[in-house]
Amino acid sequence: MALCREYKIPHSAFLDWEPEDQAKALADLWEQGSTCMMCGTADWEWQEDIRAYITDIEYCHGCNLQDKQREFSTDLPKGSTVRLVKNTPENQERINQRMRSR
Fold first, then answer.
1. DSSP assignment letter at 52
2. pLDDT tens, 78-92?
3. Residue 42: exposed, middle, or buried by beta-carbon count in 10 A (0-12, 13-18, 19+)?
4. Which of 54, 26, 29 is nearest to 39 (CA)?
5. β-bridge partners, 35
6. Among 76, 95, 70, which residue's Cα sits nearest to residue 85?
7. SS3 state at 56
8. What residues does each domain of the chain span?
9. Which residues are bridge partners to 55 per DSSP?
């Protein structure tokens, strides 16, 4: 049923799929569930080869901006998320209004 929720289809529709397609979809769902949400690797990959991955550093301007905002905004309530939104006059005004109401 988890697969049907994921694909947003009734179980009867899944049962109409070809057996090979059902098997592939179930394998994909299992693979998703066995990977770390943070790094995307699975435990079995490390068991097969402890050197399966190396780290690589990539720079992202958006992530940097979010990090700077988190450092600057020490008074954010718990559960706050720093999102990136397009720099438009409408968004600037909405954010300014929120800041004024604090």
1. S
2. 888 999 999 999 999
3. middle
4. 54
5. 42
6. 95
7. coil
8. 65-72+83-102
9. none
Exposed/middle/buried for residue 87 (C-beta within 10 Å: 0-12, 13-18, 19+): exposed
User: Mean pLDDT, to the nearest integer, of 47-57?
Assistant: 94
Question: Which amino acid makes up residue 21?
Answer: D
Q: Annotate 9-42 with DSSP letters as a single string.
A: --HHHHHTS-HHHHHHHHHHHHHHHTB-TTT--B
Report the alpha-carbon distance of residue 91 to residue 81 in Å, rounded: 16
pLDDT digits (tens, 9 = 90+) for 4-35: 998 899 999 999 999 999 999 998 888 777 88
Are 6 and 29 within 8 A, CB to CB?
yes
Give the chain's length: 102
How many Cα atoms occupy the beta-carbon half-sphere of 19 within 13 Å?
Answer: 0
pTM of the model: 0.50
- Residue labelled with tokens 């999102």: 83
